[in-house]
Design goal:
Layout (H helix, E strand, L loop, with lengths): L3 H19 L1 H13 L9 H11 L1 H7 L6 H18 L3 H20 L1 H5 L2 H6 L8 H25 L5 E3 L2 E3 L4 E3 L7 H17 L4 H9 L1 H23 L3 H9 L2 H19 L32 H21 L17 E2 L2 E5 L4 H7 L3 E8 L5 E9 L21 E10 L9 E10 L2 E11 L2 E3 L2 H14 L5 E9 L6 H22 L3
Antiparallel strand pairs: 1-2, 2-3, 4-5, 5-6, 6-7, 7-12, 8-9, 9-10, 10-11, 10-12
């Protein structure tokens, strides 16, 4: 008869293999983000740190006692349900959360709730390795770009360098510096916040001090990045545009991060001196290398039945996942956008081609991009991206993630209902965004045509992707976007009227190319 230890090891290998099969695509995406993006480069270290913290807590776990808990099976079930939602709603972040919940459930099923409490932080710390959803990332990055630009200009003006800001572009006169997404400071914010959480966990002092330590990672990252941008501006002012390259590459790596870490440690030292709990408490009392309680004191219990049931539950889900990922969908027949009419009730269009980098990134099945000119000479851009089957990494994405950039920022965003008129097939509910760069202004209208629905809310798009994949076996749909520049002598109302006229002529044609 196999020993208890051998059974546990075999079940652990089986669970690892099943989770690897279920989440292979999700893990590949996660690992690729870790190695290709400086914003999440700390993610590769997070699982190792968590494992070390679990090992460090092994004696506390043993002291509490290991027991069987059916709560683990319930939590695993919730995690696997989220796996299906993430797959059908094309959300990687939901699948990442699903894997984390399943891991937590397996731990609770194997050692019980009381022992799992000793692993609360190591398990929760794994969440810091999960990338933000694109729309949250884009919004945060855009704000950080503007804050860093403003701080950089402030640094330049303090030392007497003439500088002005237009959005995220710093004007130094003959030279303009654009604070792009990579310079927003977000690549320091995420790693530093992750490190601050770890320091707060090991910093055995009052809770308010630990909260302050974590929250301070945000202003420290913005301050350091704004200072870097200011120094780059000074070098450009003195030595020309070429001076920015070497400095930027040197200081956006380890040097700048070490400066941020130094400020974090200095803050810990200052906080430790304010009403300390114990005068002998060190900054990193959390590192305990030896305990009096030996590992062998782990109570000998029977086999964790709840854990084995949780592992067994992974087997049918793994088989079902094959059907989910390889399912075939029958999208209705449609006309190709190459046949989209370029003359519509006086409007004359000229087709444009997207650059290959955007085509590769968006991964649509068909698209149209055209400049339409009204009879009066005014113009507006019309863009539609169609997806025959929307899967993870291949679905209509929110324009909110790409509208800011190149000095442009979103000045306002609101919802507008366009009633059916002038031959329109149905009313259209749109998002109206005003983007601005200095004195330049554009108005952007966009909505999502998903099967027979007109949606403007990205969350509803994801919900109906899941719903229609289950109920109708369809996930085809498109993003529709129109934009127009606000001329020097034009008002926003006049541009809105122009876009409304273009919508009235393209909407009736759209149904042949994006079917209900």
């Amino acid at each position: 008869m196999m020993s208890r230890t051998l059974v546990l090891r075999l079940s652990l290998l089986l669970a690892t293999a099943l989770l690897g099969y279920l989440y292979a695509e999700s893990l590949a995406y996660l690992f690729n983000r870790w190695i290709s993006s400086d914003d999440y480069s700390h993610g590769m270290l997070v699982p190792l740190v968590s494992l070390f913290l679990v090992w460090q807590a092994r004696h506390r776990i043993a002291a509490v006692g290991i027991e069987n808990s059916w709560w683990g099976l319930a939590i695993v079930s919730v995690g696997l349900l989220l796996y299906g939602v993430g797959e059908l709603a094309t959300l990687y972040v939901v699948q990442h959360l699903s894997l984390w919940i399943v891991l937590v459930g397996l731990v609770i099923g194997g050692i019980g709730l009381r022992a799992a409490r000793a692993m609360t932080f190591p398990l929760a710390y794994l969440l810091t390795a999960i990338p933000l959803p694109d729309f949250l990332y884009a919004g945060l990055s855009s704000k950080l770009q503007l804050w860093s630009s403003a701080l950089g200009v402030g640094c330049l003006q303090v030392i007497g360098v003439t500088a002005f800001r237009e959005g995220n572009v710093i004007d130094l006169g003959p030279v303009q510096l654009q604070v792009v997404e990579a310079c927003s400071g977000i690549r320091y914010l995420f790693p530093l916040t992750s490190l601050a959480l770890l320091c707060a966990y090991l910093f055995k002092d009052r809770m308010w001090k630990r909260v302050v330590l974590v929250l301070s990672a945000v202003p420290i990252s913005i301050f350091i990045n704004g200072f870097r941008i200011g120094v780059i501006g000074v070098l450009v002012e003195w030595n020309g545009q070429g001076a920015a390259e070497g400095f930027s590459h040197l200081f956006e790596g380890a040097v700048l991060f070490m400066a941020s870490l130094g400020l974090l440690i200095l803050e810990m030292w200052l906080l430790a001196g304010i009403r300390p709990i114990n005068e002998k408490t060190s900054l990193f009392e959390g590192f305990v290398w030896n305990d009096r309680l030996p590992v062998s004191s782990v109570p000998s219990t029977g086999l964790p039945t709840a854990y084995f049931c949780s592992v067994a539950l992974l087997v049918p889900v793994a088989f079902a996942s094959t059907y989910i990922t390889e399912r075939t969908e029958l999208a209705p027949p449609r006309a190709a956008f190459i046949d989209f009419p370029m003359q519509l009730d006086g409007w004359v269009g000229t087709t444009l081609a997207l650059e290959k980098q955007y085509v590769d990134a968006l991964r649509f099945d068909d698209y149209v991009l055209a400049d339409f000119h009204a009879p009066g000479g005014q113009s507006a851009t019309f863009y539609v991206a169609y997806y025959r089957s929307q899967r993870k990494g291949q679905s209509a994405h929110s324009p909110q993630s790409c509208l800011p950039g190149g000095g442009w920022e979103i000045a306002s965003m609101n919802a507008v209902d366009i009633p059916a008129s002038d031959g329109m097939v149905q009313p259209v509910s749109i998002n109206r965004a005003v983007i601005q760069k200095g004195s330049q202004k554009q108005i952007v209208w966009y909505w999502f045509k998903q099967r027979d629905r007109i949606l403007r809310n990205e969350y509803l798009v994801k919900f109906y992707l899941f719903w229609d994949a289950v109920a109708r076996g369809r996930t085809d749909g498109a993003l529709v976007r129109l934009s127009s520049v606000v001329g020097f002598d034009e008002t926003e109302e006049l541009v809105d009227q122009r876009l409304r006229q273009l919508v009235s002529v393209v909407e009736p044609e759209l149904h042949r190319f994006v079917p209900d």
